[in-house]
């Protein structure tokens, strides 16, 4: 299933725009684009909502016919327990996270202990925990950890753009994780020369215009055959003013949806 994530609305949610979009507003925009899935990922206000606000947000998603997934950073037992509770509120069947949180950087031994402690509750609830590929942890280490634990509910949120920062190749990341992927983050990426030819910047690109070999990912991971959701997000830099930035963000979202719908 194609979905939109919070990062597809990064600037629209931002305080830098005149009227920041609410979570329910993002739900409504998702439905207007004919998309049936929304991933609330690293959305700070979620953890500040009281029970009434959470119930209202979940009801809004259901009324719009949206499936919801959740995302956070970190695997501390209390964090994973909290997000499993939130998953019950939103009828979510997947929580995306990362090994490190802003407060904790566990060793692999500690990470394994925490995950083993948390996973029985996820297994009992039928909720997947998907750990994202990113630059702070080698892909081989992440996959090794998942394979050692051996839970059907534990896998990877595949984002091959992230691993370039540790000099890993996106195609290698795709191939190394394919068997344990639970979720895919979809965005394109590219390098651009800095002024004066003094290095490069690495950032986002409109889907299909960058370096991401998405057909290779589709062929290798087979997300559509395996029921793995493809969640749209962007690395869009500020475009100089709010109006241009929001317009570009929306254009990139439409472009990515069209790209995904046209590929097989």
Explain this structure.
- With 264 residues, the chain is an alpha/beta fold.
- The protein is built from nine helices and ten strands.
- The strands form two sheets. An eight-stranded parallel barrel has the order 1-2-3-4-5-6-7-10, surrounded by seven helices. Strands 8-9 form a two-stranded antiparallel ribbon.
- Strand 4, helix 4 (108-125) and strand 5 (128-132) form a beta-alpha-beta unit.
- Helix 3 (77-90) runs parallel beside helix 4 and helix 6 packs parallel to helix 7 (214-221).
- The chain is globular and about 50 Å long.
- The mean pLDDT is 97.
* Number of continuous helical runs: 9
- Listing every helix as H and every strand as E from the N terminus to the C terminus, the arrangement reads EHEHEHEHEHEHEEEHHEH
Structural class: alpha/beta
Shape: globular
Q: For the largest sheet, list the strands in their spatial order.
A: 1-2-3-4-5-6-7-10
Kindly report the average pLDDT value: 97
Poorly predicted spans:
none
Could you tell me how far the N terminus lies from the C terminus, measured between alpha carbons in angstroms?
12 Å
* Largest sheet geometry: 8 strands, parallel, barrel
Helical content class: 40-55%
Strand content: 15-25%
């Amino acid at each position: 299933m194609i979905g939109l994530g919070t990062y597809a609305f990064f600037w629209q949610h931002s305080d830098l725009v005149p009227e920041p979009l609410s979570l329910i507003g993002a739900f409504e925009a998702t439905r207007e684009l004919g998309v049936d899935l929304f991933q609330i990922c690293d959305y700070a206000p979620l953890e500040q909502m009281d029970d009434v606000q959470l119930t209202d947000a979940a009801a809004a998603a259901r009324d719009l016919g949206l499936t919801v997934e959740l995302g956070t950073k970190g695997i501390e037992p209390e964090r994973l327990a909290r997000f499993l509770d939130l998953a019950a509120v939103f009828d979510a069947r997947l929580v995306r996270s990362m090994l490190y949180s802003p407060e904790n950087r566990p060793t692999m031994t500690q990470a394994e202990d925490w995950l083993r402690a948390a996973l029985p509750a996820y297994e009992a609830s039928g909720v997947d925990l998907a750990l994202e590929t990113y630059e702070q942890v080698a892909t081989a280490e992440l996959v090794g950890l998942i394979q050692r634990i051996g839970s059907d509910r534990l896998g990877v949120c595949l984002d091959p753009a992230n691993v370039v920062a540790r000099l890993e190749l996106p195609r290698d990341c795709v191939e190394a994780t394919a068997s344990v992927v639970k979720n895919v983050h979809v965005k394109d990426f590219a390098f651009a020369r800095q002024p004066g030819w003094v290095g490069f910047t690495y950032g986002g690109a409109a889907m299909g215009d960058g370096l991401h070999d998405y057909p290779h990912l589709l062929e290798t991971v087979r997300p559509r055959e395996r029921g793995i959701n493809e969640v749209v997000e962007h690395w869009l830099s500020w475009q100089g003013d709010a109006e241009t930035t929001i317009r570009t963000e929306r254009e990139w979202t439409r472009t990515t949806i069209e790209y995904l719908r046209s590929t097989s």
